[in-house]
Amino acid sequence: MTATLLWDPLFRDPLMVGLVLAPLAAVLGCWLRVRDEWLACLGYTHAAGAGGVLAAAIHVPMLPAAMAAACAAGGVKAALGRVGNEAFAVMLLSGWAFALLLAANHPRADVVGRVFLDGQILFASRDQLWVALGVAVVALASLPVLSRRLLRQRFQPAHHRANRRTHWASGLAFDLLVVLSMAVCSMAMGVMAAFAMVLVPAWVAWRLARGWHMTLWLSAGLAVIAYLCAFLLAILLDQPFGPVMVAVLLTGLPLRLLSRPGTSG
Amino acid sequence: MSVDPLVRADTLVVGHRFPICRPVSFELRPGEILGLAGPNGSGKTTLLHAIVDAEHVLSGSLVRRRDAELTVLQQRPGLPEEAPFTGADLLRICKAEHRDPPPCLLPLLPKRMDMLSGGQVQLLHVWACLGCSASLVLLDEPTNHLDPDARVRLADMVETGRADRGLLLVSHDRTFLEQTCNRVVDLLPATAQF
């Protein structure tokens, strides 16, 4: 029955959207942890949510509006430089307050606002699948190039400066990739499910994996398994997808206890 | 044939708004290991930063050869408390694959770095600098976290990694510098009395 449900034509596009976005978000979560910026994506998801709600209120396409709002939030972050978690928290709170106030005062925005908060991937369309695939292809093409520079910047922060090479371009490209991915994820999965997808699989893999590549694979694998479980549970139990997704991911959090790193003195 | 120095400092004074050190002159050529010694607060790390980004120079001159590829060991290399990176990851990320790592590091390469001791991590970070192709290597306090045995290994690594490049070691440990360097330059705080 479960296999039939998964392959039901009604659910096929939503299922595929999540199968593309879940590993993408989880892998990006690993790099965000490297950069100590995992809270940033919660700011981006709320900014995207606010953009989507605003788009509904003024009758413009929601996905581009969500992406534009997340890009604007990314631009603010880039302009402020590495400012720490407080700036991301302000971004989050602003997006949340703006979206809810707009939703409370506009009937159409109210519906969209609830979709963002609940996360209804079952409504994801073929258009969203194409956009998700596009972002995933861009990520697949750019991350191998960006990865070494981003990681080296973490381990040897003075390296690029010392050799008179600029680092801002790779940082900006990564930020843009995160912003676009988070906008698409929040539109499809809901704000909190997108954030949990970035946070939890990478956090678990961070503890269990030995080596960077294993961390990426484990994080992506955990995200796909959790997503499939949540997708089925949401349909079978007739529950909103977002909270189910978050609950399933949190259920996997104790996996971190399987390994207990300690230093050798 | 004379080889241009990788770095040349002439009556150099570094500082932020005020001088930290007294004027110092030195030059470092390929194949040399130069030590910069001095007590805490004498401007050793600030001088290193000046070589990296040409800032903090208050007077005198500091010239770095334009074609010199540089790598730097900082005192607090960035690594989250919990991180899945192995020693091999670190060397790959820092492109320290130009030379084979010394035998003492081989057992550390498959292990997660957050499972290693501070001294083992320090040796890996040193080799991340020495194992790459940079022609100028700056090591800031490389003896941090090292016990006497590890210091011997560090001295071997420095000797192995010198080849035809210039190494600048900054340390308050003058004994170590005298054992490993061709020359040692003393840096005196600006407030030092004579």
UniProtKB/TrEMBL annotation, chain A:
The lineage of its organism: Bacteria, Pseudomonadati, Pseudomonadota, Gammaproteobacteria, Chromatiales. It is a multi-pass membrane protein. GO terms for biological process: response to zinc ion; transmembrane transport. PANTHER family: ABC-TRANSPORTER METAL-BINDING PROTEIN, METAL ABC TRANSPORTER PERMEASE. InterPro entries: ABC_BtuC-like, ABC_TroCD. It comes from Thioalkalivibrio denitrificans. Its main location: membrane. It is found in: Cell membrane; Membrane. Signal peptide: none annotated. This is ABC transporter. One of its GO terms (cellular component) is ATP-binding cassette (ABC) transporter complex. Belongs to the ABC-3 integral membrane protein family. Pfam families: ABC-3.
UniProtKB/TrEMBL annotation, chain B:
Keywords: ATP-binding, Nucleotide-binding. Residues 1-194 form the ABC transporter domain. SMART domains: AAA. Pfam families: AAA_21 (PF13304), ABC_tran (PF00005). It comes from the Bacteria. Gene3D superfamilies: P-loop containing nucleotide triphosphate hydrolases (3.40.50.300). InterPro entries: AAA+_ATPase, ABC_transporter-like_ATP-bd, ABCF_ATPase, ATPase_AAA_core, P-loop_NTPase. PROSITE patterns: ABC_TRANSPORTER_2. SUPFAM superfamilies: P-loop containing nucleoside triphosphate hydrolases (SSF52540). One of its GO terms (molecular function) is ATP hydrolysis activity. PANTHER family: ABC TRANSPORTER ATP-BINDING SUBUNIT, ABC TRANSPORTER DOMAIN-CONTAINING PROTEIN. This is ABC transporter domain-containing protein. It comes from Thioalkalivibrio denitrificans. The lineage of its organism: Bacteria, Pseudomonadati, Pseudomonadota, Gammaproteobacteria, Chromatiales.
